[in-house]
Design brief:
- There is one protein chain.
- The model has no long low-confidence stretch (mean pLDDT 91).
- Helices cover 18% and strands 26% of the residues.
- The protein is globular.
- By secondary structure, it is an alpha+beta fold.
- The longest helix is centred in the first third of the chain and has 11 residues.
- A hairpin with a 2-residue loop joins β3 and β4.
- The strands form three sheets. It has a three-stranded antiparallel beta sheet, with helices on one face. A two-stranded antiparallel sheet has the order 1-6.
């Protein structure tokens, strides 16, 4: 639970991750890149699980079986462009 977010706000997954980092000490997302760049930021780590080598991984991946945009595209977009809607669930996986 990331706390209350206005239902009418169009948020991105990156916005939700920023809120989690601000409001929850037990979960810490480490992000790399720039929010304003062409590709936006990416998840480099969650808590102590960090991508040690960007070319060999392991990497943090995410998907959603509830987000209509992910379902329609067959994949989720970058965190700073991926819209998040009420009751969406995203699964994060640390894998090669």
């Amino acid at each position: 639970d990331v706390g209350s977010i206005k239902e009418d706000e169009l948020l991105t997954l990156g916005d939700v991750i920023d809120k989690v980092n601000r409001d929850h000490e037990s979960v810490n997302f480490k992000l790399s890149g720039s929010k304003d760049s062409e590709f936006g930021r990416f998840i480099e780590g969650i808590n102590e699980y960090l991508t040690e080598d960007i070319s060999t991984g392991p990497w943090w991946l995410y998907h959603s079986k509830t987000n209509e945009v992910c379902i329609a595209a067959g994949f989720c977009d970058g965190i700073d462009t991926q819209p998040v809607y009420d009751e969406d669930i995203f699964d994060f996986e640390f894998t090669r």
